[in-house]
Amino acid sequence: MARTRYRSAGRIIPARELPAAALRAVLREGYTKADLRSDALAGVVVGIVALPLAMALAVGVGVAPQHGLYTAIVAGFLVAALGGSRTQVTGPTAAFIVVLAPLYAKFGLAGLLLSGLMGGAMLVAMGFLRFGRLLQFVPHPVTTGFTAGIATVIATLQIKDLLGLTLRSSPEHYLEKVAALFEARSTASLDELVIGLGTLGLLLGLPRLTRRVPAPLVALPLAAVVAHLVPLLFPDFHVATIASRFHTVVAGRVVDGIPQLPPLPVAPWRMAGADGGAFRLGFEGFRELLSGAFAIAMLGAIESLLSAVVADGLARTKHDPDAELLALGIGNLVVPFFGGIPATGAIARTATNIRAGARSPIAAMVHALTVLAAVLALAPLLGFLPMTSLAALLLLVAWNMSEAKHFVHTLRVAPKSDVAVLLTCFTLTVGMDMVIGVAVGIALAALLFMRRMAEVTQARWVDGDHPDVPATIPAGVAVYEISGPLFFGAAQKAMSALESTAGHTRVVILLMSGVQALDATGLVALESALAALRGQKRLTILCGVQPQPAALLRKSMLGSREGVVFASEASEALALAARHVAL
After folding, report:
1. Domains, the chain, with CATH or none
2. What single-letter DSSP state applies at residue 9?
3. What is the pLDDT confidence band of residue 464, given thresholds at 50, 70 and 90?
4. Which of 186, 248, 315, 473 gets the most CB atoms within 10 Å of its CB?
5. What separation in angstroms does the CA of 393 have from each of 76, 94, 379, 396?
6. What is d(CA 367, CA 73) in angstroms, rounded to the nearest whole number?
7. Is residue 10 over pLDDT 60?
């Protein structure tokens, strides 16, 4: 069935049209029963896929699995309804684990939810300030480096549950985490490892047999059945499950595993603090939560917009990045009040949504309702899922997220400067912090880009070998050509040669038709060179100035200064120079 595609992303739409931009576009084009049927089926499929992922990702952060489910329900519904992408699915993602796990360990659930709330406010501001299109300038080596770094950290964190290790402490930094895991090696459980490796084998093997049924939908329930039945034959066999690990108090009664309740309103600041105690926040703590909120906002924005771009490629649609950021911000503002952790666009779930036939945001809304129905109907059964199986699922997610083949390919074929950016971003993300990795990566990439642009900018004296300049240049006239952007990385090099004009020169013609861009530093360098020429009693003719440099030169009143003349073409400049020399 032919469909009219969403085209408003090609223009900057007014702020009042940002909320629900994609949904309103779909309804405006005409939404049929066939579209609803296709969306409903796709939503159910992706909801089933999202169910174990949402639980596993919450456990990866350290919180009870229901908080991941609440995120998929509340944020998944709101962002789909209010966003700018037709087929994007939003929920908890693996990328957030490295940001959220330290926040939870230090500030408890209350601090985690508050940091997500502040991150949501930042995302709303980013949407209204039209930052969506700016994020496309994040260099590819930066995204590849920090994504691979995040995947490495996530995979390392799963070793604990995969082996059933008992750690003495939970260090904050990566190398300390690795050391703690190594120290706890004697506590490893063969029972946990067998179930975990069996789950991982099924997750890897089932897609080779059939892709009609999502592998987690078979592998995790089967692992739960095995983990429940084996102790009947071998009483010493034991693995930790969701029900044995997590306990929630509901109406004064302790519930093992996941409560059979929908997301209910809560006050984030009244939730438990670190180690289950009361939450208290001082100024230093607020600063750390604010730093975490910035990481949540930046990572959420980058991952969500990357996912939306992938969705556009798969579904041949166009998303509005500002509308998507605004919706993501609103979703993250609201979800903490229902106990949900931060959310962003999920590439794997979005791809599943599209392949299942999604046509509009209604599919992602149905996905959220499907997760809600599963919580209400299947919560007691979900408690039987082994923790080691969830760790195996996250190991697979981390592997897919790392794109190891692409990472190695980039190392082999990319320029050395890009390889340096990639490795720097990867190393800092793993060894220090995702925000530091991205910030340093972008700064390094920008510096290397400026160096390349400075190399592109060329300046030379013309000796009659220019197509616009005759073979014989009048005596007393010198022609200097500048090509390339005249910005702070190249201005000084380009203008310094003007100081070496011959003593008999009375007129200097600057050919600037190749200068498409001029910044403040370039302007200062140009003004300095012109002042030096004026001090030598020489006339300067600026020839073929392009629109952007011309606008900047007009603002600087350069044309009204003595000793400076403008000409549109080289022939006109040479005629003016000849008349001046003849005086």
Report:
1. 20-446 (no CATH), 458-582 (3.30.750.24)
2. G
3. low
4. 315
5. 21, 11, 19, 5
6. 8
7. no
The amino acid occupying position 482 is I
Task: Give residue-wise pLDDT tens across range 345-366.
Answer: 988 889 889 988 899 999 999 9
Mean predicted confidence (pLDDT) in 158-186: 86
Residue type for 556, please? S
CA 398 distance to own-chain centroid:
16
Q: Is 583 exposed, middle or buried (CB count within 10 Å of its CB: 0-12, 13-18, 19+)?
A: exposed
pTM: 0.77
Cα 368 → chain centroid: 23
Q: In terms of DSSP bridges, do strands 344-345 and 90-91 run parallel, antiparallel, or are they unpaired?
A: antiparallel
CA distance 331 to 316: 25
- Report the length, in residues, of the chain: 583
Tell me which of 462 and 330 has the higher pLDDT.
Answer: 330
- Would you state the structure tokens that stand for residue 177, as one six-digit string? 């985490």
Which two three-digit tokens encode residue 179? Answer: 């050391």
Write the pLDDT tens digit of every residue in 29-70.
888 999 999 999 999 989 988 988 899 899 989 899 999 999
Q: In what order do the strands lie in the sheet with 564-567?
A: 458-462, 477-483, 507-514, 539-543, 564-567
Q: What is the mean pLDDT of residues 329-335?
A: 96
